[in-house]
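Appendix B, example 12.
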Amino acid sequence: MFRFLRHRFRAVVQRAIRVVARACLCRCTPCPASPLVGTIADLARSKPQLVAENLLLRQQLLVLNRTGKRPRCTRADRALLVVFASQVRHWREALLIVRPETVLRWHRQGWRLFWQAKSRGTSQEPRIAPETIALIREMAAGNRLWGADRIRGELRKVGIAVAKRTIQRYMRPVSPSPPRGQSWATFLRNHAQDIWACDFVQVAAVWFRPLFAFVITELGSRRIVHVGVTRAPTDAWVAQQLREATPFGAAPQYLIRDNDAQYGPRFDTIAAGTGVTLVRTPIRAPRANAICERLIGSLRRECLDHILLVSEAHLRRVLHEYAQYFNHSRPHQGIGQRIPESAENGDYSMDTTAAVTAFPVLGGLHHAYRRAA
């Protein structure tokens, strides 16, 4: 009977100590300078908790004894501190040489390294054939609009079963950026018959007075649609040139122009009224209006660099004559050595026994050759 009462009394006392310790821990922060509170808190802890806290403190002492005044933790020290801190309930109060945020950062880094090592495959060699890898990269490089799903479908058509993630892995070196649509060259080839391009040509007359020529060309046939000449190009004058180039509704779907100040609101109004969509060339994109720029280069090399211009009317007459030669007699490499508005249009099935006659152009600067009728 006495032994039972003694055990009962001891259990009640231990329970009371635990309640008091918990209340103290919840209502106040433990202070190293208050041994009474620390003793009461230690009585409420279990033996594994005390052992883990002692190990945590011992590891910090080892780091301080090894490194001196400024502690430097190695990877092993960081791992041990993280492990010991995870076993202590009030681990923040037990840290003396590092901050709690530092231990949390070490824990996140270790967790990341653990899953990286666990996710890494046992073998670095690809599990698919090298021919399949080459075919995936060829499809990705040759078809910019295709994604991994589309390539996977094409591979299934030829009897190759590959996962989507595998295709994405081998697509990255070929196409690092996501597809943003078709290229500018592809757009021009698909819509060349419905696209015009315009630009200005500045030349100097005999008295070094500037003259400006406005040229409009069709990209599909390389035909010069319109040529205008003036001394001072304004918004109203440029709008009138566009109106003259599109009589009776003969307008393209797109018109490429640069960001020159001469294209003002009147020019935009005329273009909108005729159903033309204006396309501005981007900044620092020399290939955006390459066909019209090449036409201007041919105009300078084959005509303007060899003629001394006297007046505005003289430049207009020269450009009109060159435009007739350019459209009806001059072959073009960009369209397979054909002529934009020739009756033959590249059809050379004619009488080859007839004599060849030369017709002078621009006073003999060029010649147009035709078979005699």
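The chain has three domains: 2-115, 130-171, 187-371. DSSP finds 14 helices and seven strands in the chain.
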